[in-house]
Amino acid sequence: MTSENTHLVLVDGSGFIFRAFFAIRHMSNPEGVPVNAVYGFTNMLMQLMREHEGQPMAVIFDAGRRTFRNDIYPDYKAHRPEPPEDLRPQFDLIRQATDQFGIPAIELPGWEADDLLATYARLVVEQGGSCTIISSDKDLMQLIRPGVSLKDPMKQKPIGLAEVEAKFGVTPDKVVDVQALMGDSTDNVPGVPGIGPKGAAQLINEYGSLDAVLAAAPGMKPSKRRQNLIDHAEGARISRQLVLLADDVAVPVPVDELRPRGEPDAETLRSWLESMGFSSILQRMGFGGKARHPAQRRPDASPASASAEAQEAGDIPRSDAPFGPYETVTDRETLARWIEAAQAAGRVAVDTETTGLNARTAEIVGLSLAVAPGKACYVPFRHEGTLEAPVGEQLDVKETLEQLAPLMADDAVLKIFQNAKYDLTILRQAGLDVIAPLDDTMLLSYAQSAGAHGQGMDELSRLHLGHTPIPYDEVTGTGRNRIPFTQVPLDKATAYAAEDADVTLRLWEVLRVTLPRQKATALYEEMERPLITVLERMEEAGIRVDADELRRLSEDFASRMAEMEQGIYDRAGRPFNIGSPKQLGEILFDEMGISGGKRTKTGAWGTDSRVLEELAEQGHDLPTAILNWRRLAKLKSTYADALLKLMDPKTQRVHTTFQMTTTTTGRLSSNEPNLQNIPIRTEEGARIRQAFVAAPGHKLLSADYSQIELRLLAHVAQIEPLLDAFRHGQDIHARTASEVFGIPLEEMDPLTRRRAKAINFGIIYGISAFGLARQLQVPQGEAKRYIEAYFERYPGIRDYMEKMKEEAREKGYVLTPFGRRCYVPGITAKQAAQRSYAERQAINAPLQGGAADIIKKAMIRLSGRLAGTGLKARMLLQVHDELLFEVPEEEAGETAALVKEVMESVAELDVALSVETGLGQNWAEAH
Known about the structure:
Subunit structure: Single-chain monomer with multiple functions.
Low-confidence stretches: 289-301
Helix content: 40-55%
EC number: 2.7.7.7
Number of helices: 37
Distance between the termini: 70 Å
Domain DNA-directed DNA polymerase family A palm: 685-891
Domain 3'-5' exonuclease: 326-516
Keywords: DNA damage, DNA repair, DNA replication, DNA-binding, DNA-directed DNA polymerase, Exonuclease, Hydrolase, Nuclease, Nucleotidyltransferase, Transferase
Number of domains: 4
Mean pLDDT: 87
Strand order of the largest sheet: 3-2-1-4-5-6
């Protein structure tokens, strides 16, 4: 591969995967696994093989999310969302597709695909050849030069000097400097605040390079830009390290071995295409025949395949009605017709358009109704219009909701929502109090498919309807050009908003049919749907915070951080920017000479938390001090300062939002503020909890399930010693220590009990010997002996763990004791790390999910019991295994007894549930 005629084709596989996934509607193979991205990728390979016949080709993939850039800048790509659940199982299949066509699939841990592309491009040019990179990724434009070209696979057009200059305003050799100045919000590259693409290009063209710009900054005319260049010079230099592609990677396949391919094995390829169900590709490749029918799939494979089977069998009334056009309603007479149509249909899908995502602070802008597939309308209330597109008459919010009130309260008409809790809050704040009965398509899906895919409307629409709804960005614009929804012209607003109601109704038709087939009816009817109103009331109640205490806490944290900083400077021998990874690395490894450091590819030392924890374990003081400073800084910003900003000044309360569908196990999560991650056993965590207080004349009541996941483990795995210990009220950790280490209970010492406690809880999460060794600060061999002794004494636990892993591999999900399916993506992954993580999920999900089911049951039952007894307690928070109430002082004892009785009796296990209650003026006292 060294001749001048050699032309290497390099395919940016990772970049294409996401584009194929979102470009092609949902498809499943005969086993029910999503394959839309695989299909798009396979088509691309076929096309490229035709276009570049006889030329060597390789497909380059990302090996993982963490690379050397995270050592330079820990927040690099930190805010990128996880891949869609429907895409995850397709990564391995896409690598299979590459292998089936006889094309090398290349990846390397610690490096991005872009770095491998850069290295191969350099190598082939140095050997006298040339290459074409198949990608439209802007980050690869820096590689364009004689011998290296770029081609957009979607638009089928080359990307050359003209395209680069149009994109960045500079030639390819200056792209990195421009990117370093402007930053990149997608990858979390900081850049210099206030400098965009045009400003960055102007500076680089004027001064020639990033270094020249930064050197000239002090002499520039005083301005905000000048000051930002001075203040953020280090950030720009770090950004350059992040965006500069490494072209000296030790590639796993030498460039000389990338020779022209032979023909793929026809029968092997045919068999694989049939297994994917790609009939059209089989025919285009001349194989003839056709793949197995899509309905020939394992019946319990996934909720998506269950939906597809039902639709193919004609059991689901999947409508062919077009999505639109829809009607804009601007008078009461027309609205009356829609209300009559809803009453006649006996169901209506409802969706609101608002000014924001926080239901407590957002205002309603309009409302959509759908009474049948393709029959939907939009009722605008607060559209402002523009000079170019003025808005005519609109209905009054109050009058319209009064007109809708009888329909919303009509027991004979089902109201259907997607994320009902949000819309109910919006409508009730606007004056519509009674909305029943109702269904929620988001929860209908979640009850059947927790962990299998996301539960957003757009994703569900693609999955079940094969339809991609109009994106929000399409009607409002993006970035600086985004307009509020109130300014969207009514024709566009109607098309967008009414489609949401239409999609919601069609989803309901699909998901209601699959609910019993997935054996999820009881879960939805008895747990998920009733919880909507419980959580809505909790969010409305909020919890009171002591603003003065928060200010004192913030000042105390700031003071302690300042003291820490001085101590850090003393240990380091000089002041430095503690938040700068580069400066910290120079202090630790260059100036202090600490051994064990590793340089990143750019030459900077790695200083992320993992590195610092390892150094701290070796007894080094400075890394320990840095970790403590970072922990305190996070608590200050996340709680002490953030709670003050989130507090309603009128009520002195914060109102968290509970998320019902974001976890695989059924657990609730919360945001604004996130109250799930307050440290429980630290002094700072207790201080934060002290700031959550009861209203005057009230107390906070905490009710916490004791060791619920261990009790569930004893129940589901039928571990007799654990069952016996719980039945007799023994100290479970002391009993475990006695069983495992052969020490009589009366001779138990605290250290041995602590080790048994770590094993008890660690086993639930699939802890490794390495993890246990770090936690107990013992040699790894010793930790391994502890785990082996544990399994020898409790072989039933190992049997349970293997059973759960096998069940997940066979079905794709595991079940909680109450029948919730918890899907486990990655359980059959080829990559050991991904597979091991999925196996730990399979072990823990029935226990964590079972605990989530129990506390949800308790919340629903308590809501009714408290109301029925006339007690005035209000449920405020749910955090893991704990419920927090605000109760009148005179009712505190009676309420605590009732709460304990209900929570302990809500489920029947082979061991009794135990609840600990506490009362206090603040959360710390009560917990």
